[in-house]
Design brief:
Layout (H helix, E strand, L loop, with lengths): L2 E6 L7 E3 L15 E6 L2 E11 L14 E2 L8 H13 L4 H7 L3 H4 L9 E6 L1 H4 L10 H12 L4 E2 H8 L3 H9 L3 E6 L19 H11 L6 E6 L6 H14 L3 E5 L6 H12 L3 E4 L5 H12 L5 E4 L11 E7 L16 H12 L2 E6 L4 H8 L4 E4 L1
Parallel strand pairs: 9-14, 9-15, 10-12, 10-13, 11-12, 13-14
Antiparallel strand pairs: 1-2, 1-4, 3-4, 3-5, 6-7, 6-8
Helix pairs in contact: 8-9
């Protein structure tokens, strides 16, 4: 007998047992998928934690799952273990912790978003054009060459990253019949722009910090990067991110404020030529979900966001950076109360990767951990 252990999004400190749907595909019953289940007099969305063959309740007392909502797991085994730890450590219902880690639409039980975002691609007529004949229109040449390299099409924001503001240019080429508008499965700003910015040479302290951290990229280590404003912490971050991405890993960057994410993400794209996903509460729900899915699938190599981003599934996690680690905004003050900085350290430990806590004014907790030898103290 197959028993499904489900964390239901309800204010109850329990995991619930259910029977599979009457008709189901066993391959879809994998930990990490969402399930629609009967709960009380209504229905709730839950996350499948485990497939078992035993229950403390008699089979005739168990209800059946109404619907399996996902074809693939949204959370991996490491993600589920982290959520279970957070629920236990912060004494909060596991089902609601799992729900808090999902984008709003997925939390409510909606189907995963499949529609694309507006994009452009060349028509047959446009593909037949010779860019060499348009040398008096360099921006048209640049756009044609870009889309010739990407016949599947690009989003408007991807095009803007490469060619600058493109609204008038796109309209002109569409009127000529060279371009057509399409929907593409992409997230604005995810493709790699050309690298146009070379970084400065690191000073001795910066290089020493980079060397110590990169020496341990393949294992867990907690580092307190202590440097006054203007000492070059961001350059250390950029060099570390460059090395992690070059090794095929993903990096998670936590920042305390929404306002810091655009500046940092643009700098990363220009300097490192990597696909960057930005997650924060200012995004529209649909865009946030698309970005979340790209991060979960490993298509975004660097993920930047505020505190809730610490729970985003990342299959190839190789580094976590927490900028301004002392900032109180990393602490969730209502509902599921947690410290994103502390969760980041635990996540890095469970993922066997380094975590770097940067600050000009480190918190007393981090200074004490450095003094006790739990963190390695790096000064700039």
């Amino acid at each position: 007998m197959i028993i499904l252990k489900v964390a239901v999004a309800a204010p109850v400190y329990a995991i619930f047992d259910y029977l599979p749907p009457a008709e189901y595909d066993p391959e879809r019953l994998i930990p990490g998928v969402r399930l629609r289940v009967p709960f009380g007099r209504g229905e709730r969305c839950g996350v499948l934690l485990q497939v078992s063959d035993e229950s403390q309740l008699q089979t005739n007392r168990l209800k059946r799952v109404r619907e399996v909502l996902d074809d693939n797991a949204l959370f991996g085994a490491e993600d589920i273990a982290l959520l279970c730890w957070a629920a236990d450590y912060y004494r909060y219902p596991l089902g609601e912790v799992c729900a808090a880690a999902l984008p709003a639409r997925l939390r409510q039980g909606s189907a995963a978003q499949k529609q694309g975002v507006p994009g452009w691609r060349l028509t047959e007529l446009g593909s037949a054009q010779d860019p060499a004949l348009l040398m008096r229109a360099p921006r048209q040449v640049a756009l044609l060459q870009l889309l010739l390299r990407h016949p599947e099409g690009l989003s408007r924001q991807d095009i803007d990253l490469h060619c600058g503001s493109s609204a008038q240019l796109l309209r002109k080429l569409e009127q000529r019949g060279w371009l057509e508008q399409i929907d593409i499965q992409a997230v604005p700003g995810m493709r790699n722009p050309p690298a146009v910015e070379a970084g400065p040479t690191l000073n001795q302290d910066q290089q020493s910090a980079v060397d110590r951290i990169t020496h341990g990229l393949s294992r867990f280590g907690a580092y307190l990067l202590d440097g006054v404003t203007g000492s070059g912490k961001t350059e250390v971050y950029l060099e570390l991110l460059k090395q992690v991405v070059a090794l095929g890993g993903q990096a998670l960057v936590l920042v305390p404020e929404i306002g810091l994410t655009p500046q940092l993400s643009q700098r990363l794209r220009r300097r490192l030529q990597v696909s960057v996903a930005v997650l924060h509460s200012g995004l529209a729900e649909g865009e946030r979900e698309l970005v979340w899915q790209r991060a979960r699938l490993g298509q975004a190599r660097v993920v930047i966001g505020t505190r809730s981003t610490v729970f985003v599934p990342l299959p190839d996690l190789g580094l976590i950076l927490v900028d301004e680690e002392h900032d109180l905004s990393f602490k969730q003050q209502d509902g599921f109360r947690y410290s994103a900085r502390d969760v980041a350290v635990v996540r890095a430990q469970r993922s066997n990767c380094p975590v770097v806590l940067g600050s000009a004014t480190p918190s007393l907790e981090s200074l004490k951990n450095a003094l006790d030898g739990r963190y390695k103290h790096l000064r700039l």
